[in-house]
């Protein structure tokens, strides 16, 4: 049997955490042959709820689950962690200034970066889910300099999956036959869902999404805003933000990163920009990536039209502003 992999979930007593931990324990993140040890972190006010999550994990008798640590101690939570899913954070409440929310999250991610830096496995892979996801990931990267920068990513796979879902509904094809959409930029309403390279597998071979939809007006307006606003639409209907779709997408993100993307398929991940596609280096920006042997690489050479360029630049602009705001909170 394989050695267990230790997975940290922060904010584990929250909505996403509750959906995510059983998925991990069932093997949906690392495969059904891979034993796992779960480390669950939350804060003191949620300690009882966190303990209930641990009780339910024990009660589920998951064959792959080799241990559970539920704690409010950041050092204990981060010790020997191979994969860290950062879901805990400070939510924006009505009437709060952006700067105040940023300031709370900057201090959380600065502290958790230090704990991961000192106590996690040296090759620990990190996925930032908590918002503002890209900028929290950047702060974590800054304060955990010994973790390789390629190991620090943020979640835009939910947006990617939402884009696949919209195309599948529109064309009445199975979602699994739709491939290679791209989410560029920030996990926010400025993200750019791009279908210019997306395809659908049909009986008659592979067709482009633009050709099959045959309605650029819809693809350039309603499709884009539906994906951008999907999170808000869920909040409006559910009175609470997307939870199991976020959890499922987090599993997709880590599974593809660790086990590899299928041949001919790319996915979207928020990663540290190296300047590809003219995106300012030093931002965590969502790109199309392929993964092999636990490493991602940005898909190169895709043609970018003027419409896409403007949208990719606008979301980069927002990330540059967020970065400046985050840095202004550091002192
Ligand atoms: P939630 O409020 O139900 O859970 C958050 C949990 O984090 C709470 O249990 C809270 O006590 C805990 N927490 C707060 N500060 C913490 C700290 N310093 N250390 C550890 N835990 C801490 O929220 P939910 O719905 O689970 O969402 C979590 C985050 O994920 C939010 O920031 C949300 O905006 C974000 N999100 C991101 C998505 C993405 O695609 N990137 C999609 C959906 C949500």
Topology:
Elements lengths: L4 E6 L4 H11 L10 E6 L5 H13 L5 E7 L2 H5 L4 E4 L11 H22 L5 E4 L4 H10 L9 E3 L2 H15 L6 E2 L2 E3 L7 E3 L4 E4 L2 E4 H5 L2 H5 L1 H7 L1 H9 L5 H16 L7 E6 L11 E9 L2 E4 L7 H23 L3
Helix pairs in contact: 1-11, 4-5, 5-12, 6-9
Description:
- Substrate binds at residues 92, 98, 131, 162.
- It comes from Heracleum sosnowskyi.
- InterPro entries: L-lactate/malate_DH, Lactate/malate_DH_C, Lactate/malate_DH_N, Lactate_DH/Glyco_Ohase_4_C, Malate_DH_AS, Malate_DH_NAD-dep_euk, Malate_DH_type2, NAD(P)-bd_dom_sf.
- The N and C termini lie far apart (48 Å).
- This protein is 43% helix and 20% strand.
- The chain is globular.
- By secondary structure, it is an alpha/beta fold.
- The mean pLDDT is 97.
- It contains twelve helices and 14 strands.
- The structure holds 1,4-dihydronicotinamide adenine dinucleotide (NAI).
- Residues 10-11, 13-17, 41-43, 46, 87-91, 108, 129-131, 133, 155, 158, 187, 241-243, 246 line the site of 1,4-dihydronicotinamide adenine dinucleotide.
């Amino acid at each position: 049997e394989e050695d267990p992999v230790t997975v940290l979930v922060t904010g584990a007593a929250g909505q996403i955490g509750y959906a995510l931990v059983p998925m991990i324990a069932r093997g949906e993140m690392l495969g059904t042959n891979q034993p796992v040890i779960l480390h669950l972190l939350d804060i003191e006010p949620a300690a009882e709820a966190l303990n209930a999550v641990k009780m339910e994990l024990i009660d589920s008798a998951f064959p792959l689950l080799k241990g559970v640590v539920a704690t409010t101690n950041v050092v204990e939570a981060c010790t020997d962690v191979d994969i860290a899913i950062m879901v805990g954070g400070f939510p924006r409440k009505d009437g709060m200034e952006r700067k105040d929310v940023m300031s709370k999250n900057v201090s959380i991610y600065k502290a958790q970066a230090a704990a991961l830096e000192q106590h996690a496995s040296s090759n620990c892979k990190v996925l930032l889910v908590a918002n503002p996801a890209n900028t929290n990931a950047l702060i974590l990267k800054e304060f955990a300099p010994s973790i390789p920068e390629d190991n620090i990513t943020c979640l835009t796979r939910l947006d990617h999956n939402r884009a696949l879902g919209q195309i599948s509904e529109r064309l009445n094809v199975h979602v699994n036959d739709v491939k290679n959409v791209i989410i560029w930029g920030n996990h926010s309403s400025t993200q750019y869902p791009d279908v210019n390279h997306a395809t659908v597998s049909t009986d008659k071979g592979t067709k482009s999404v633009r050709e099959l939809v045959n309605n650029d007006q819809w693809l350039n307006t309603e499709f884009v805003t539906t994906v951008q606003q999907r999170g808000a639409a869920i909040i409006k209907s559910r009175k609470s933000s997307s939870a199991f779709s976020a959890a499922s997408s987090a599993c997709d993100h880590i599974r593809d990163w660790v086990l590899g993307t299928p041949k001919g398929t790319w996915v979207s991940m928020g990663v540290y920009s190296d300047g590809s596609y003219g995106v300012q280096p030093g931002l965590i920006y969502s790109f199309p990536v392929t993964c092999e042997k636990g490493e991602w690489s940005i898909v190169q050479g895709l043609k970018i039209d003027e419409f896409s360029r403007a949208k990719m630049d606008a979301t980069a602009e927002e990330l540059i502003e967020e970065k400046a705001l985050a840095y202004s909170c550091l002192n």
